[in-house]
């Protein structure tokens, strides 16, 4: 008697494998839908890229303006001019005393001879020659103090030093620059919020149109018992794909603008004897931009899809 052939039984796939396969299929299908509508995709991605690049570009400009304004630490330096009769040895002793304070980061002593040499090196030879012609060196010793932390309390202490003639601290322009930069930073956040909302609406409208074109397919899936997460997943990947491509295009636009402005800005800096160079987006910032753009697209698609599913739930 012949033995019956053993029937091959297919091993059922695990739920985790099926979940992973559906995620992969949703991602690939989303890219395919974008590629099948190149012009519509280009318009959506282009609008999002411009909306993302504007606050990013303004943030880069503010960052470079802060660097162009000079180092903040140098701007915070205070020059303590001692009385002319104070000898250099006393100036050095006073500097050693100031270095022991917790609110003082550094103290540099500039003797009268060093001050005269600095005057000659700065191109003011006429004044240096006039000082030399008078006989002797009437320039006082100067202590250049770099504060640590808030310098206002330190300035009051320096003015109270008995050997002090006067204290020079040109902090007005720095305070104004800091306020302008603070205002600019707040403006960047407001602009980013507004344009980010615009980008979210663009993605939402694009996904809404895609949902409308697949209304019958969604109705069939709902009648078969598909969960909202199963139906929503392809649209979420579609929105994230729009965001990622828009973020990459925004970075490309910023890089192009940087390359176009680098040469004339370098020539302008060289004319002032400065080594300033415009810095663009570093790799870590680029990854953050891509992640934020993808999350923005994902969020826009999720809001629109969730609203549609609530309205059409069987």
Automatic annotation (TrEMBL):
<feature type="transmembrane region" description="Helical">
    <location>
        <begin position="187"/>
        <end position="207"/>
    </location>
</feature>
<dbReference type="InterPro" id="IPR004513">
    <property type="entry name" value="FtsX"/>
</dbReference>
<dbReference type="InterPro" id="IPR003838">
    <property type="entry name" value="ABC3_permease_C"/>
</dbReference>
<feature type="transmembrane region" description="Helical">
    <location>
        <begin position="235"/>
        <end position="254"/>
    </location>
</feature>
<keyword id="KW-0132">Cell division</keyword>
<keyword id="KW-1003">Cell membrane</keyword>
<protein>
    <recommendedName>
        <fullName>Cell division protein FtsX</fullName>
    </recommendedName>
</protein>
<feature type="domain" description="FtsX extracellular">
    <location>
        <begin position="78"/>
        <end position="152"/>
    </location>
</feature>
<comment type="similarity">
    <text>Belongs to the ABC-4 integral membrane protein family. FtsX subfamily.</text>
</comment>
<keyword id="KW-0997">Cell inner membrane</keyword>
<comment type="function">
    <text>Part of the ABC transporter FtsEX involved in cellular division.</text>
</comment>
<keyword id="KW-1133">Transmembrane helix</keyword>
<keyword id="KW-0131">Cell cycle</keyword>
<feature type="transmembrane region" description="Helical">
    <location>
        <begin position="39"/>
        <end position="62"/>
    </location>
</feature>
<keyword id="KW-0812">Transmembrane</keyword>
<dbReference type="Pfam" id="PF02687">
    <property type="entry name" value="FtsX"/>
</dbReference>
<dbReference type="InterPro" id="IPR047590">
    <property type="entry name" value="FtsX_proteobact-type"/>
</dbReference>
<feature type="transmembrane region" description="Helical">
    <location>
        <begin position="286"/>
        <end position="309"/>
    </location>
</feature>
<dbReference type="InterPro" id="IPR040690">
    <property type="entry name" value="FtsX_ECD"/>
</dbReference>
<keyword id="KW-0472">Membrane</keyword>
<comment type="subunit">
    <text>Forms a membrane-associated complex with FtsE.</text>
</comment>
<feature type="domain" description="ABC3 transporter permease C-terminal">
    <location>
        <begin position="190"/>
        <end position="303"/>
    </location>
</feature>
<dbReference type="Pfam" id="PF18075">
    <property type="entry name" value="FtsX_ECD"/>
</dbReference>
């Amino acid at each position: 008697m012949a033995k019956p052939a053993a029937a091959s039984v297919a091993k059922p796939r695990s739920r985790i494998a099926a979940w992973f396969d559906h995620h992969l299929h949703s991602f690939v299908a989303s890219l395919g839908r974008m590629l099948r509508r190149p012009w519509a995709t280009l318009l959506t991605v282009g609008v999002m890229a411009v909306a993302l690049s504007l606050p990013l570009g303004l943030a880069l400009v503010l960052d470079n303006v802060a660097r162009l304004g000079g180092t903040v630490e140098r701007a915070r330096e205070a020059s303590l001019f001692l009385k002319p009769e104070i000898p250099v040895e006393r100036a050095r002793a006073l500097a050693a005393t100031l270095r022991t304070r917790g609110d003082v980061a550094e103290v540099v002593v500039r003797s009268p001879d060093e001050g005269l040499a600095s005057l000659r090196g700065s191109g003011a030879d006429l004044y240096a020659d006039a000082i030399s012609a008078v006989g002797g060196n009437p320039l006082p010793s100067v202590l250049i103090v770099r504060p640590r932390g808030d310098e206002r309390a330190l300035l009051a202490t320096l003015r109270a030093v008995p050997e002090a003639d006067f204290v020079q601290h040109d902090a007005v322009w720095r305070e104004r620059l800091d306020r302008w930069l603070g205002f600019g930073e707040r403006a960047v956040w407001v602009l980013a919020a507004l344009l980010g909302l615009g980008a979210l609406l663009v993605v939402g409208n694009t996904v809404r149109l895609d949902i409308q074109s697949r209304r019958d397919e969604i109705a069939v899936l709902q009648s078969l018992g598909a969960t909202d997460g199963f139906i929503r997943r392809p649209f979420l990947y579609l929105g994230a794909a729009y965001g990622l491509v828009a973020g990459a295009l925004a970075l490309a636009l910023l890089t192009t603008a940087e390359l176009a402005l680098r040469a004339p800005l370098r020539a302008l800096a060289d004319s002032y004897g400065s080594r300033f160079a415009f810095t663009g987006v570093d790799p870590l910032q680029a990854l953050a931009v891509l992640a934020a753009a993808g999350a923005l697209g994902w969020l826009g698609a999720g809001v629109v899809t969730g609203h549609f599913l609530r309205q059409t739930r069987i």
